[in-house]
Amino acid sequence: MTTFRHAHTRTTLFGGTAALALALTACGAPSSGGSASGDGTVTITVGDRPSADQAAARAFFDRRVQEFHQAHPGIRIEPSETVWDVQTFQANVAGGTLPDVIKVPFTEIQSLIARRQVADITDELKAVGLADQLNPQTLKIVQGRDGRIYGVPVLPYAIGLFYNRALFEKAGLDPAKPPRTWDEVRTAAKAIAEKTGQAGYAQMTTENTGGWMLTAQSYSMGGSIESEDGSKATFDDAATRNALTYLKQMRWEDDSMGTNFLYNMNDIAKDFAAGKIGMFLSVPSAAYQAAVTNFGMAKEDVGLTAVPTGPGNDNRVLSGGSVEIVNPKASPAEKAAALKWIRFFDLHKYIDQEAAVADAKATAQDGGAVGIPRLSPVAPETFERYESWIAGHVNVPLENFTGYTGDLATVQLKTEPVRSAQEVYAVLDTVLQKVLTDKDADIAALLAEAVATVDAKLARAPR
């Protein structure tokens, strides 16, 4: 997608793109490297080591490995540069070279569970003391139909609506009361356009980001993009038609969407920072960093609220992120070692005050944002404690984000389409562009044509 789509943090590194299709062979390949030596030392292979051309990230990863060895002398980590990729992952599973620990996108975990390509880690989570520290909300994503747990969600996100508080004030709107419904978005967008001359609402439409955000809009109206098994497109429904209708009305009836209908993530954040956009949908951490850190927007002008709702809303919000999985052939000792590594590498700052403060200080010193609201990978009480630890280092206006944070604990998370999501998004990009550039665009016909195109792609996609 873009450099903002999956932002790296100081303490966690993503492995892969969060919406690629999964192609796996039947379960049965052995673990690539997990073993126990005669002295009782457990050795596991860990994927997602940054490549040599990512010198700083690689050095950080290697330093954490050494620190882990010091803290856990009975476990040895063998780093691997293997990351999630639809083709290499398939080959690794087939060839028995899958690392004992590797990150996969949210979208893939249920397919992995169904194919028995991932370890059941329920008992080991309890044994190492992680079971009660993880967020029950995100754990639902890694739970099988049997109620067992098959992964550890890390860096989860939920889409939100950004709004320019300064433009709201200029338009006579109350920035403390951002829109809660798409009807209210339309009203606010029209007011901003009429009273400030800027785009009241803007939409990403290129580089697959248009389909991505249209998915969020469809979900906000109770819709879906694919069937649960990813075999059929389902977006030719009332929800997606309604989402496109709102956009068509804002564009052609209200003239409240400006003149740029080819935005990607970078450009929409740039124009938002420049005061040219009143509202847009995006990922909180990526968009805030882009607008404020990269493009110099005054942080006091940034507002963030929950995705507005529309007809058919069922309280579902588009979410994504990565899941740490364990090789299905790992022994109980190897699974326990893997979870200790995941806790140390991905979750350490949430459960250790010294690590939390050190990370916050370093992030602020590097010019980064501390305290951007986000879905928590850990339990609410654990996250609240973490927030108290870093409170003195928060450098974002938390009071401007209450419309978003107030809803996080109650929404139901819905992941991206499970198969060929990027191809689906690319098709939906063209639908959006047509609706926003052709006043006579027939939404029903466009969606019917798009469904046929996507169904053909899904029929060819590996399963």
UniProtKB/TrEMBL annotation:
Keywords: Signal. It holds the Pfam family SBP_bac_1. The keyword Hydrolase does not apply. Residues 1-28 form the signal peptide. PROSITE patterns: PROKAR_LIPOPROTEIN. The keyword RNA-binding does not apply. This is ABC-type glycerol-3-phosphate transport system substrate-binding protein. It comes from Thermocatellispora tengchongensis.
